[in-house]
Design brief:
CATH class of the domain at 11-227 and 373-400: Mainly Alpha
Radius of gyration: 23 Å
CATH topology of the domain at 11-227 and 373-400: Hypothetical protein af1432
CATH superfamily of the domain at 11-227 and 373-400: Hypothetical protein af1432
CATH architecture of the domain at 11-227 and 373-400: Orthogonal Bundle
Distance between the termini: 65 Å
Largest sheet: 4 strands, mixed
Oligomer: single chain
Shape: globular
C-alpha cells in the first residue's frame, strides 16, 4: 500500500504561475471534497467570454492561484522576522482557498434572482462551517482568520483587504485569460515588499510604484472587463431569465430543470433557509453553470414567449442594447423606449421590466475609507498610499465613479416577441 501522506503532496501546473504545490494533507483533502470540486464547473468571469473568448477559466483556477500567492506572501513575512506558526500558516491557506467557495453559477446572478438576501460571502461561511464539522474542527482557526476574529489581523488581510492575495491573483489571471494587458501587475514585486507593522499588513515604501500600478490596473480592468457594457448586458439578461423562470414556477408553470435548480426555483430560499435547513446548503453545492445553461437551452422553446425570447437571445448572443452615461436617464427617455416596445410587440406593460430597465455601476479602485494600503518607511513610520503617492494622483483614483445605464431590446428581440405573441 502506498504512503497516503506522500500521495497528498500533489503538484498542479498552473498556466499563470507554473507549478503549485500543496503543503498540507488537509488542503489536499479539502480540494478533493465535492464542495470544492464544484468550483471547476463555475467560470471565474461568468459571461465575460461573450466579449473576451478566452475568459473560460474557473473559480477553481483562481482559488488555487490565490492560495499559491498566499504561500509566497507568508514566506516573505516570515523571512522578515514575523512569526507565523505552522498552524496559522495552514489556517490562512485554507481561508484563502475557500474564500470564494460560496459563489453560485454566473457570479452574482443567483444572488439577485432565485435566492434572496444572502451573499456569496455568507454562503462561503456556511460552507466553511459545514466542512469544519466534517473535518472534526480542523478549520476552526481558518474560519476565525476568514472572519477577522484572530489576534493577528495581517493574516486576515492577506485573505481579504485592499491588498489581498485574492485581488493580486484575479487581476493577473483575468488579464491573462482575457488578453487585456492593462491588468498585468507585478505580483512578485508586490509580495516581496510586504511587511507587518503593529500586527497589520503594510507595503515597504520602495514598493510604492508597484502599488500605484496595481490600483490603476484594477481601475482599468473594471471598465474594460468586469463592467464592460456588453458583459453588463449579458449578465442582466441571465438575471432576467432566472427572474422570469422564478415568476412562472411560483405560478405553478412546469419548467425543465435539474433537481438542484428546482429546489431553489420552486420555493423561496433566503439566508434563514441556509441557517436552519442543512439541505439548502447541500442543494446549493450541487448547482453550477451547467444547471443554468442546460435549462436555458430547453427554455428557449418554452410556450412563454418572454422566457423563450430571453433564452434565445442569450444563446445566440443577441443581447440587449445598452447605453451608458454619467447622469441618470430621464423618465422621458425611458417612457419613449417603453412606448416604442409596446407599439411594436405583443408584450404587456407589466412585462416590460424584462426588456427595459436602468441601473448604475460603480468603480472604486481604492477606498481609503476602508482598510488602507499603508506604506512602511525605514524610520518605522507609516503613511496611506493616497497621501504618499507622487507619481500619479491616487486621491483622484480613490474617488468613486458612478455611471448609469439603460438596457432595451434589439430589433431581433422585438421580432421574436412579435412573431410568438404573449
Amino acid at each position: 500500500m502506498k504512503n497516503s501522506k506522500y500521495n497528498k503532496k500533489k503538484i498542479f501546473n498552473d498556466p499563470v504561475y507554473g507549478f503549485i504545490s500543496l503543503p498540507f494533507d488537509l488542503i489536499f483533502d479539502i480540494i478533493e471534497h465535492p464542495f470544492f470540486q464544484r468550483l471547476r464547473r463555475i467560470k471565474q468571469l461568468g459571461l465575460t467570454h461573450l466579449v473576451y473568448p478566452g475568459a473560460l477559466h474557473t473559480r477553481f483556477h483562481h482559488a488555487m492561484g490565490a492560495m499559491h500567492l498566499t504561500m509566497k506572501a507568508l514566506d516573505v513575512i516570515q523571512s522578515k522576522g514575523y512569526k507565523v506558526t505552522k498552524k496559522e500558516r495552514k489556517a490562512t491557506l485554507i481561508a484563502i482557498l475557500l474564500h470564494d467557495i460560496g459563489h453560485g453559477p454566473f457570479s452574482h446572478a443567483l444572488e439577485y434572482s432565485i435566492v434572496k438576501n444572502v451573499t456569496h460571502e455568507d454562503i462561503s461561511t456556511f460552507f466553511m462551517q459545514r466542512l469544519n464539522e466534517e473535518f472534526d474542527g480542523k478549520l476552526s482557526l481558518a474560519i476565525q482568520i476568514f472572519e477577522n476574529k484572530y489576534k493577528k489581523p495581517f493574516l486576515h488581510q492577506l485573505v481579504s483587504s485592499q491588498l489581498d492575495m485574492d485581488r493580486l491573483d484575479y487581476l493577473k489571471r483575468d488579464s491573462f485569460f482575457t488578453g487585456v494587458s492593462e491588468g498585468v501587475i507585478s505580483s512578485e514585486r508586490i509580495i516581496s515588499m510586504l511587511n507587518v507593522k503593529d500586527g497589520n499588513l503594510v507595503i515597504e515604501a520602495k514598493g510604492i510604484y508597484s502599488i500605484e500600478k496595481f490600483i490603476i490596473a484594477r481601475r482599468l480592468m473594471y471598465w474594460q472587463v468586469y463592467l464592460h457594457k456588453t458583459v453588463l448586458s449579458a449578465e442582466n439578461l441571465v438575471v432576467n431569465i432566472l427572474k422570469r423562470a422564478k415568476e412562472l414556477s411560483l405560478k405553478g408553470e412546469e419548467l425543465f430543470c435539474t433537481d438542484a435548480l428546482r429546489y431553489f426555483l420552486y420555493s423561496e430560499r433566503n439566508k434563514t433557509s441556509f441557517e436552519k435547513d442543512p439541505e439548502t446548503l447541500q442543494r446549493f453545492s450541487e448547482l453550477d453553470d451547467f444547471d443554468i445553461t442546460a435549462s436555458i437551452k430547453v427554455w428557449q422553446n418554452h410556450s412563454d414567449s418572454i422566457l423563450a425570447t430571453l433564452c434565445k437571445s442569450l444563446l445566440n448572443r443577441n443581447l440587449y442594447k445598452i447605453d451608458i452615461q454619467k447622469s441618470p436617464f430621464s423618465k422621458e427617455e425611458i417612457d419613449r423606449l417603453k412606448k416604442n416596445t409596446l407599439e411594436t410587440t405583443d408584450i404587456k406593460e407589466k412585462e416590460l421590466k424584462y426588456f427595459i430597465f436602468t441601473d448604475s455601476i460603480k468603480n472604486n479602485a481604492y477606498s481609503p475609507k476602508k482598510d488602507k494600503i499603508n506604506l512602511l518607511y525605514k524610520d518605522g513610520s507609516i503613511s496611506d498610499i493616497a497621501e504618499a503617492a507622487d507619481k500619479l494622483n491616487i486621491n483622484a483614483l480613490s474617488e468613486e465613479v458612478i455611471k448609469h445605464f439603460v438596457c432595451y431590446p434589439k430589433q431581433i428581440m422585438v421580432n421574436n416577441l412579435k412573431k410568438s405573441g404573449s
